[in-house]
Amino acid sequence: MKKLTVLTGAGISAESGIKTFRDGDGLWENHSITDVASPEGWRKDRALVLEFYNQRRRQLHEVEPNEAHRLLAELENYFEVQIITQNIDDLHERAGSTHILHLHGELFKSCSCNNKNLIYEHKNDINIGDKAEDGAQLRPFIVWFGEEVPLMREAMKIVKEADIFLVIGTSLQVYPAAGLLHDIKDNCLLIVINPNETGFGYGQRAVVMKETATCGMKLLFDQLVNLA
Prior knowledge:
Blueprint: E1 3-8, H1 10-14, E2 27-28, E3 31-32, H2 33-36, H3 39-44, H4 46-62, H5 67-74, E4 80-85, H6 91-95, E5 100-102, E6 105-112, E7 119-121, E8 138-142, H7 152-160, E9 164-168, E10 189-193, E11 206-209, H8 213-227
Parallel strand pairs: 1-4, 1-9, 4-5, 9-10, 10-11
Antiparallel strand pairs: 2-3, 6-7, 6-8
Helix pairs in contact: 5-8
């Protein structure tokens, strides 16, 4: 099977009802990103950060995968599919995809604030006083702005082996994830589905579809199958 690697961003989850802070004024539920998604915000107000992610977690229980998620899962019948996602939700998993790398962490997990290797499944609220086995406060298992992205090396390896690289629903403005496009092979087919302009210059090599994730995947699916 050919290797199909997919990089997904907030645009694919937005169609399931998950909000993205980059849609408007840079605020996320009226909070600045620094306040709720950075080590500085965590040091300043742990209760605020925990409640922010508790709200995101509750919302995730209420939404469902959309057609783009489901079509990506179906492509596993034709390709060796590896999804690299910037999203922290579990919609790819629920749609049936089986090989998913979460670059920025997972909302349904928690970890010790002193040791990110102490990781726990956590589908409900995290509260002040909830402790890891090392006695430290639990925090969301999320890569915040300003933190290292530990799975980048693995993602780069996957991208370098891709025969087809499909980018869906990301503006490619968040690094280091956007830099993955530098790692594709010269003969790799690059396809981008995003309704808005991205922050990346593709030159002439990319097939660009200015569509939403679901519309783009519906248009592209049969064409991809023909390439298998």
